[in-house]
Amino acid sequence: MIELIEKAKKTHNLTKSELTDILKDNSVNEELFKASDDVRKKYVGDEVHLRGLIEFSNICKCSCKYCGLRKDNTKLERYRLTPEEIINFAKKASEYGYKTVVLQSGEDAYFSKEDLTKILKEIKKYDLAITLSIGEKTYEEYKAYKEAGADRYLLRIETTDKELYKQMHPNMSFENRVRCLRDLKKLGYEVGSGCLVGLPNQTIDSLADDILFFKEIDADMIGIGPFIPNPNTPLREEKGGTFELALKVMALTRLLLPTINIPATTAMETLNPNGRIIALQSGANVVMPNVTEGDYRRKYEIYPGKICISDTPAHCRNCISGKIQLIGRTISTDYGFHKR
Ligand code: SAM
Ligand code: SF4
Ligand code: FES
Q1: Ligand 3 near 21 CB (within 6 A)
Q2: Given this model, what pLDDT does residue 254 score?
Q3: CA 307 to CA 289: how far, in whole Å?
Q4: Among 105, 177, 196, which is best to mutate for testing ligand 1, by the most ligand atoms less than 8 A from CB?
Q5: Buried-exposed string 110-139: b where 16+ CB fall within 10 A, e elsewhere
Q6: What are the domain boundaries of the chain?
Q7: 303, CA 20 to 30 Å: which among 37, 53, 64, 340?
Q8: Which ligand 2 atom is at minimum distance from the Cα of 169?
Q9: Contacts of 210 (CB under 8 A, 6+ apart)
Q10: Which ligand is nearest to the CA of 227?
Q11: What CATH homologous superfamily does 45-331 map to?
């Protein structure tokens, strides 16, 4: 097993069966995390890129079985920020020193192509890179957002197991999700994807396929998160993913895609109070602190126990910066694009 990890560290290639062998064997986890940390240091250095996250609407027309924002969840108080509020949060993010804002929402059909392009153009005036995370759109919509200034797009494939994908996503299709990722790449976005770890009936084999898929689509960013069951969804009784397995999938992703950006995800910190720092020491090089203000944070309840719901943007910025510096890493002052 140690030899396999050494091989991955040198060649950045593993076969599916080699990946599953490592995923199944917990006796070499420390060696795996160390190798991934070494590869992170060698290829992307000690800088950590901060992206300010704006959760601008929790309204969603989809019914992903795992997600608290799904349309059938009647227990959630819904909200949608006005364009002025979104632009104002972005302005404040730039004042806090962020070089990127991530605009994330449910699949909210309210915002037209024209509305969003206007918002993007306004935000661009604050010298920010923009990442969008607003779901599946048409080629024309993606093109308009790119032309209006969006630089990156996050759209997790969630799982590459087509049967499981179907079970988890009523009225959605795996093929359309892949189509979106390919369109985004064609349009010149930096493309982010990723998966959930610990979905019901998810196999280790399929997690190995997920990692190979990230390589196949030539991803620029990959976010891995443990699935955390939400009591207001059909998966309320499920066990959910573990921090350890999510960290292993993330570490293997770093070994195979050495130059990409990898966030230490909020879901990891929800399962482990030091989760983001452990992730940063096991292959990650990005953190996405929340810059949404007030009660909106609590209402963007994808899963229970989400961190920082009562904290202010200024507090989070100081909190995470301090933790990053304590482990001897530095906060990047550039846009943090993917350097190949
Ligand atoms: N609607 C957009 C989309 O689906 O791409 C963006 C927002 S969505 C809430 C962002 C991510 O949240 C999803 O890609 C999914 O992986 C994650 N997520 C949803 N429910 C989750 C849960 N119960 N536990 C962990 N992550 C979850
Ligand atoms: Fe909507 Fe995204 Fe949640 Fe699916 S994961 S229900 S698309 S917010
Ligand atoms: Fe929000 Fe630490 S990052 S309180």
Answers
A1: no
A2: 98
A3: 10
A4: 196
A5: ebebeebbebbebbbebebbbbbbbbbbee
A6: 45-331
A7: 37
A8: 4
A9: 157, 159, 160, 195, 249
A10: 1
A11: Aldolase class I (3.20.20.70)
CB crowding 184-198: b at 16 or more within 10 Å, else e: bbebebbbbbbbbbb
8-state DSSP, 307: T
Q: Which amino acid belongs to residue 224? A: I
The token duo for 88 is 């104002």
State the pLDDT at residue 147: 98
pLDDT-flagged residues of the chain (< 70): none
pLDDT at residue 157 in the model: 98
Token readout for 161 is: 């197991």
* First vs last C-alpha separation in the chain: 28
pLDDT at 268: 98
Q: Could you report the per-residue pLDDT of 38-92, keeping only the tens digit for each?
A: 999 999 999 999 999 999 999 999 999 999 999 999 999 999 999 999 999 999 9
Q: Give the Å distance between the CA of 243 and the centre of ligand 2.
A: 22
Taking each helix axis from N to C end, the angle separating 29-44 and 243-256, rounded to the nearest 10 degrees, works out to 40
Using the structure block, give the residue that is written with the tokens 């759109």: 137
Look at the pTM and tell me if it is higher than 0.90: yes
- Structure-token pair, residue 276: 């983001």
Q: Which ligand does the CA of 59 lie closest to?
A: 2
d(CA 145, CA 276): 30
Residue type, 327: I
How many angstroms separate the CA atoms of 229 and 10, rounded? 37
β-strand partners of 52:
101
117: helix, coil or strand?
helix
Which amino acid does the sequence have at 234? P
Which residue among 64, 76, 168, 195 is best mutated to probe the pocket of ligand 2, counting the most ligand atoms within 8 A of its Cβ? 64
Q: Are 44 and 151 in contact (CB under 8 A)?
A: no
Burial 244-280 (b: 16+ CB within 10 A, else e): ebbbbbbbbbbbbbbebbbbbbbbbbbbbeebbbbbb
Residue 155: C-alpha distances to residues 17, 192, 193, 239, 254 (Å): 26, 6, 5, 24, 18
Q: Reduced to 3 states, what is the DSSP secondary structure of residue 165?
A: helix
